[in-house]
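[retry 2/3] Battenin: previous attempt timed out, resubmitting with same input.
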Amino acid sequence: MVRTMERSASINADQPQQPGTNGCCVKWRNWWGFWLLGLCNNFAYVVMLSAAHDILEKQESKNSTVTASDQLAVGLRAGNSRNSSRYDCSPVSTGAVLLADILPTLFIKISAPFVIHKVPYGFRVLFCVAMAAASFLLVSFSFAVWLSIVGVIFASISSGLGELSFLSLSVFFNRNVLEGWGSGTGAAGVAGSLLYAGLIQAHLSPRTTLLIMLIVPFAMLASYFFLLVPEPSLPQWSRSETECPPVDSEERQRLMDELEDDLETSAPEDRTMGPVTLQEKLAVIKGLLPFVIPLGLVYFAEYFINQGLMELLFFHNSSLSHAEQYRWYQTLYQVGVFVSRSSLRLKKFRKTWIFSLLQMVNAVFLIFAVLFQFLPSIWIVFGIILYEGLLGGVAYVNTFHFISKETESRYREFAMATSSVGDSLGIALAGAAAFPTHSYFCSL
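[retry 2/3] Battenin: success.
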């Protein structure tokens, strides 16, 4: 341990210090920088769909035309008047909305990791900011249904590309920035839903509310360019095929890991220069499967509950209307995600498959709860939904922490970008599974 501290002091002494900064200040600036990036990246994704529904409802009411998306939005407000089903079903599963929101993200996460390394990070951030701002503007000023849908797609593109880019960006910083990123993405769910609902409750129109939220993409811009203190090796505006994370940065990270874990030792890093070949990338993907598959299962079960079952967990004897019950389910879920995504500093879990198992148990239990309606109180469901969010958030942050920690430096940037496909694939499959589930229960 003493020898490790001596080596760490020696390396830190050899590295040039950035003027006007110290290690602790830089560390916290980067932590909060990634926290804001996580918040801003997921913010449009969280609020855009509900905002689009409000505006679509207004547009369609003018045209006296009702689409499936409008029926969903109106249905969640309509209480018991929708149909004679004992579940008070809306005409269309919320899985339809989920698929429209997740498919662009999934496509980007599957395809982009193989080519995105050629695009410097500065240009990626500018593109994500432009897409997020365009989504708010398009939905705000849309004059037709198709334009609002394009706005939702832009928000999905911004979120998907931003997530894989910022996760791969983290390899150029101290690994603790993943704590900030995870906490920020969790905060986006709570902040986005509460802020949108609060502004609407204050009698602002959806258009005005979305225009106010234009500040969020510009906050991402400020966080990336003015708050973060990156390594000089970060490919900001140019990038060559031979670039890889610098040896000195990797050595410092290895020593910090030794200091953190005391008895653990880091394996020697492969610092061979040159671009990562397709064969190597496929080998990396194979090695990621023990992480990506459990993450995908967690999110499959999680969003199957949210989009296939949550609307059906309706208590007729509650003082809350159906819309209010659904809104509280979503809020408690987001609170659970925020808390657990902020937990990485307190406790780390290597065996993430445990959370996928527990989440699948959750889903099966709630299927039977919907089918036989044996739960006596909505408060039990509140507790289960909060627990569901906790499981999903802790699986997310621990998955990316251990991928970053256990992947060789040469492949780490690609691995972080590629593994982000796990949660999106699980969400997309959950949306598809929600259709027949919704149809079956509503036919009873």
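[retry 2/3] Battenin: Residues 23-63 form the longest helix (41 residues).
[retry 2/3] clearing retry counter.
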